UniProtKB/TrEMBL annotation:
CDD domains assigned to the protein according to its UniProt record, in alphabetical order: PBP2_TRAP_DctP1_3_4_like (cd13601)
Organism this protein belongs to: Ferrovibrio terrae
Assigned keywords, A-Z: Signal
PANTHER family per the UniProt record, alphabetical: BLL6794 PROTEIN (PTHR33376:SF15), PTHR33376
Signal peptide: 1-25
Protein name stated in the entry: C4-dicarboxylate ABC transporter
Amino acid sequence: MQKYIHMLVTAVAAGTALLGGTALAQSGKTITLRVADSFPTGHFIPGTATLPWMEEVTKKTNGQVKFEYFPAQQLGKAPDLLNLTQTGVADIGYVGMSYVSDKMPLSSVAQLPGSFTTACEGTKAYWKIAHGETMTKQEFSANKVRPLFAIVLEPYQFYTTSKQVRTVDDVKGLKLRSTGGAMDIFARKIGAIPVRMAAPEARESLSRGTLDGLIFPNESVMSYDLQSFTKFGTKGGNFGSFVASYVVSDAVWNKLPKDVQKIMKDAGEAATMNICKVIDANIGHMQAKLAEAGVKYHTLTAAERKPFDDISAEVANEWADGLDKRGKPGSQVLKEFRAALAEVRR
């Protein structure tokens, strides 16, 4: 394991009782919680949401709640963080929903291509259904966790190593990094070869030439230092998205005082609403930085987008039907998500 970079957001108070490696206590006593994610130092999600959320909770509890933060996969790989949270290795963990699609498949509804045009549309709609009866029962309670805050990224674009994408024909045969689930369906339907992997693994694959490109969010290209490998990018595409959620285990949550629970929920709501605004406001700036780094962009015309949009509509129905056949309420969740999007847009 890489050298332990232990970022202690606030000092751990002496005298706290340990339970499963985590300091939990009665109301009025110090509560120290472990937070784990896979993001590298400097990534925009921890900087814009995770760290401010922790700081806000510590502030609002007058220092009662403190955090130990383990970034960059220090406690485990991205796909393992849900399990590590469930088993108490971490108290709060980042869950990339595509990485756990076997356990939480319904959240991929917010990753379907062509669904929304901004991060805030996707985030607000997902956050609404995440607290609805269907998702609460099927996704979170079933896994003995609950969401604290979540981010749905802006519509993904193509970033490729040696070929500019303008049409569906341009992606045929390309090996493209995918998050799995609905993105795999989309990639296959446009003739690409989806290669499922967590974002931290993409740089090595690009450097070895085992990937021809990515279906990826703009800001993460630079956060993961991929701009030297991706020579071409698209603008105006709508090729899926990604749900990043931070969850707390039920076992930990049920031991927290009610006032602390409320502070965490309120801070999580604020973090969720804030980060999507930051993402949307920063798209143009990030694309300009990537262009300065050598990425050549093509803005897709309406005529060029239409074949992709038509395929995206097929993907949504196929995704829902596939889950229905597995006994999961895919069609119901798709209906709920579309209704939530319509409400957000009003």
